[in-house]
Amino acid sequence: MVVLPLLALASCGYGSQAEDHDAAKIAVGAKKIDGLDSVRIGYFGNLTHGTALVGVNKGYFQKNLGATRAEYQLFNAGPSEIEALNSGSIDIGWIGPSPAINGFTASGGTNLRIVGGSASGGVKLVVDPEKIKSLDDVKGKKIATPQLGNTQDVAFLNWISERGWKVDAESGKGDVSVVRTDNSVTPDAYGSGSIDGAWVPEPTASKLVAEGGKVLLDEADLWPDKKFVITNVIVRQDFLKEHPKAVEAVLKASVETNKWINANPEKAKTAVNAQLESDSGKPLPADVIDPAWKSIRFTDDPLASTLGAEAEHAVEAGLLEKPDLNGIYDLTLLNKVLKAEGENTVDDAGLRKS
Known about the structure:
alpha/beta; five-stranded mixed β-sheet; 13 helices; 12 strands
């Protein structure tokens, strides 16, 4: 089977240790869950991983794990997080759909399960308004995506195909030049003129707008109800089997965090930025975080039907042979938590373990 390439940056390793926030202190009298000393949680320093960022900052994970310490690792790319999951370096993590699909299919369905949703949206096509004034003008231009086969790369290739243009997926050459560029350097590439625009997640999209770029297309406008999965919660299958109470505790924290985010969007934005500063030493400026935050929806629903569509887009782009995604979801614990919280349960689009 041909699968999306695992293109981890050498500098990523298995991620870096995140700094524990003061809110994450273990409560007096708390007990360990499943006898575990710790649960290791992975996430990115992206706004689309806002559930994880707020959960860390406000102490939701630690509160629900009791005396089992929540430990965190930061990642810059999905493939390196999948590698860490496979090696046992982390137990559970927040990740995009394409790496989840890739990790699941590459292992023959044995290494991970998607156990929850986290976020939708937050992806835009931002262009140089002097060079590109309409969607038709994208033809013949150089447009960046974060990496070959990643979620945004697949979405952009699918959009190109739907317009009737031709691009070789592997090389990125064709009617549009697809330039794979790490999000951390995309703003500099745009500023130097080496790219004409980028199909990227937040906050990179808003960083480009702050540099004079213009939002030409919001990917949400291409999806029914403007919803599509951008971040999932995944877990090692052996950890799920051996420590379901710990997974349930993390999912309960995730549900509580999303509920707080949606009830307190401005406070949540402040908490996200505080955690970004704690993790990286630098918060996002207001002209970046304010517009970026508005474009992301936080949801417990993994939007399973859109995951299947994203996998089909990768197949049509020639980056993936038709995958068997049966068993990629196990939403049993999430629905248990949602039901206990009086919330609506969510659907796995028939992609549950048989």
